[in-house]
Amino acid sequence: MIRIELDEGALGATRIAMSPLRDAFCALHLALPSRNPSWPYQEWVGPAREVWREDDRLRPLRDLLAHRPGVSDVLLPRPVGTADVYEELDLLRATDPALVRARIADCYAGLEDAPFLRPYLTDPEAACAALADAYAAWWEGAIAPYWPVMRRLVEDEVLVRARTFATEGIDALFTGLEARVRWQRPVLELTKWVEAEYAAGERRLVLVPMVFAEGCRLYSTDDPEVLTVNFQARGAAALREGAERAASVAEDRLGLLLGRGRAAVLRELGGPLTTQGLADRLGLAPSTVSEHLSLLAGAGVVTRHRVGRSVYYQLTDTGRSLLALLAGEGVLGAIA
Questions:
Q1: The domain that contains 278 carries what CATH number?
Q2: Is there a smaller number of Cβ atoms within 10 Å at the N or the C end of the chain?
């Protein structure tokens, strides 16, 4: 169990940021032969494992993970909120050499003489450059084809969580984060196999939503100023093939009443989503989803609101009641 005590200053400084590099790191763990990923990742994991096994450019990552699968900020720099993984890789390349030596010595204590570690101690700049190149190869082979969909899911999550924080406060943000996180003011508890406690005022908190978080909830402690906690973004089901998704929509009373397309849109609206976000999750054309949403909004079961240039849709009380009565689904806490 990890206990993080947050005083008013730390709560006020809490922020939410995306990090494609952290998603790529968690995806690495899901692709390891010892893992058995759940259904949203099964279409992805076969080709990803081929990249992991066969691309020799990934050797620096394979060596580090083979000897210590945990997390160090040498592997994962502080999230800066960018959607560009190459910007994060530039930060990795620019890591202070003294910091690299210190963290490698700490994380891999007793292995300092191992050939795969020696470059980090003798030529940290070159070692970090090789590690960044390994990440880039993994990204291009296993993540990049999915990133347009992933990016929309994570950006939606950031906007929705930020809006929750701004309108309902930190209690609502933490309470709705996910099952393995428990908030009892002033302590945030994370269910992990390690034991750790952090006193109030030590560091500020950064929350990072990810698509590939299944079974790999990360928290990073090397940074003296920031605690980074990653959590599962809604919508991992978007990694499934569209045909599988369409076939999974059962012919029930809701589908018979509204049609399968509109019923699927209604089911997916467990939280605010854009038209494109719904289209990604359902494997439908955005124009089709837009038509369904217009009809549902006209019937009073869906409402819309604008955040910046994006329009978000969510269920009204009537929509929730309709789902509860006809589909028998508890949609208020639904997480994909």
A1: 1.10.10.10
A2: N
Residues 205 and 312 in one domain: no
334 inside domain: no
DSSP 140: I
Using DSSP's 3-state secondary structure scheme, residue 210 falls into strand
Q: Which of 57-61, 116-120, 209-213, 233-237 has the lowest mean pLDDT?
A: 233-237
In Å, the largest CA–CA distance within the chain is: 69
Count of C-beta atoms within a 10 Å radius of residue 295: 16
Query: What are the pLDDT digits (tens) for 65-111?
Result: 888 756 666 678 889 999 999 999 999 999 999 989 988 888 888 88
- pLDDT band per the 50, 70, 90 thresholds, residue 242: very low
What amino acid is encoded at 116 in this protein?
Answer: F
The pLDDT value recorded for residue 55 is: 94
Contact in structure between 17 and 208 (CB atoms under 8 Å): yes
The mean of the pLDDT values for the chain is 82
Q: Are residues 210 and 314 in the same domain?
A: no
Which domain does 290 fall in, by range?
241-326
The dihedrals phi and psi of 71, each to the nearest 5 degrees, come to: -115, 130
144 to each of 85, 147, 150, how far by Cα in Å? 10, 5, 9
Same domain, yes or no: 52 and 163: yes
What is the spatial distance between Cα 196 and Cα 297, in angstroms, rounded to a whole number? Answer: 48
Rounded to whole angstroms, what are the CA distances from 91 to 75, 78, 156?
11, 9, 25
Average pLDDT over every residue of 260-270: 82
Domains of the chain: total: 2
Q: What is the pLDDT of residue 327?
A: 52
Residues 182, 59, single domain; the answer is yes
Strand order in the sheet with 181-184: 181-184, 187-190, 2-5, 196-198
- Looking at the fold, whether 257 and 150 belong to one and the same domain comes out as no
> Do both 115 and 257 map to the same domain?
no
